[in-house]
Write a structure and sequence with these properties.
Blueprint lengths: L8 E6 L7 E2 L3 E15 L8 E15 L4 H9 L3 E15 L6 E3 L6 E9 L7 E2 L8 E4 L4 E4 L7 E16 L12 E9 L2 E16 L11 E6 L8 E4 L3
Parallel strand pairs: 8-9
Antiparallel strand pairs: 1-2, 1-12, 3-4, 4-14, 5-11, 6-10, 7-11, 9-10, 12-13, 13-14, 13-15
Length: about 240
Amino acid sequence: MQFGFGSGSLYGINTTANSTPQEFGALQDVSLDFSFSIKELRGRYQMPLTVARGGGKLQGKAKTADLSAKLFNELFFGQAMATGKTTTTINETAPVPTTPFAITVANAATFVANLGVKDAITGTPLVKVATAPVGGQYSVSAVGVYTFAAADVGKSMLLSYTWTTTGGSTITISNQLMGVTPTFRCILTETYEGQTVTVDLYKCTSSKLTLATKLEDFIVPELDFEAMANAAGIIGVISLDA
């Protein structure tokens, strides 16, 4: 007899030439569902005379706690990826100075987008305007300069915004033509008490990538995928010791 225990190890390899294998780090669980439709032939009696399989599916789901841009891109998006990333500063604190009543944020050199301003004492959000703010309002330029009203001089403000930095990776998600389908080879292996089970699916594609956050819990992305036949008409292999 053979038994299995634990989540095992899962790898995806994009089917383009010389692709680097991507491991699902901190793998939580994997499921593979083999299913077929059933066609029944009936006569006058309650039970069918014969039953035959119709179309089939081999669908999988994998949960990985490792947030990997390379894995997401190689197995799901299949689009342009570059070094550098967009990051976020939440509640950077600064007082409103005297004329010209402007605060330049710490990361103004690579400023991307404003996420709002709050009064540091009251927590009240200020209202964004295009120009000439009055008390309780502000304007912001494309280069990360926040301008306030003379009435707010000396008040401490909390500024939130996004900006770019070196390091990390960025996937550019473009609107592609219908039918563009990144594919990958999927290998699941699990070893328990010296016995190994390995499932090697030669060609898969992912239909869904879920990124969900939860209070007091980790982000655990889930990738849904489906296997198909390769050019030789083979779906894959299942290898066991028993």
